[in-house]
Amino acid sequence: MAEPPTIQHIAAALFGDIALITRRVRQLQAPGDLTLPERAALERLDRGGPTSAADLARIEQISPQAMGVILGTLQSRGFVQRTRDPRDARRHIMSLTAAGSEILQHKRDARVRHFSEILRAQFSADELQTLAAALPLLERLGEHI
């Protein structure tokens, strides 16, 4: 009887598989598309609502300077807007614009359609059930990385 995989083996396999999926998703990007950091910032604003650039940088675990560049690009494209914090005039709050919500939804829809086609063509009904059962676990893993 084969021994169950160790936590180290599971972690290494998951890390490698997630890295592969991430690389492949990046390869799907067309010129002019949102970068992964831009998309992450928009998704954070969409889920969490308006917040400061410093808070976004902290959540995304990048430097405030890098987040400033990302938000500047998104603002120049009309996807986010910067307003003064009504509680502290020294701070700015970033929020999603209607155009930002629209581009985010369009990108999600396109990626979901692409994933759906692959799942339909390459996975059996049993495999799809297994993937569905693993989704909460993958989400929890992502929240703790």
Automatic annotation (TrEMBL):
SUPFAM superfamilies: Winged helix' DNA-binding domain
InterPro entries in the record: HTH-type_Bedaq_tolerance, HTH_MarR-typ, WH-like_DNA-bd_sf, WH_DNA-bd_sf
A Pfam family assignment: MarR
Single GO molecular function: DNA-binding transcription factor activity
Taxonomic superkingdom: Bacteria
Domain HTH marR-type: 11-140
Annotated PANTHER family: CONSERVED PROTEIN, HTH-TYPE TRANSCRIPTIONAL REGULATOR RV0880
Protein name: MarR family transcriptional regulator
Species per Swiss-Prot/TrEMBL record: Mycobacterium dioxanotrophicus
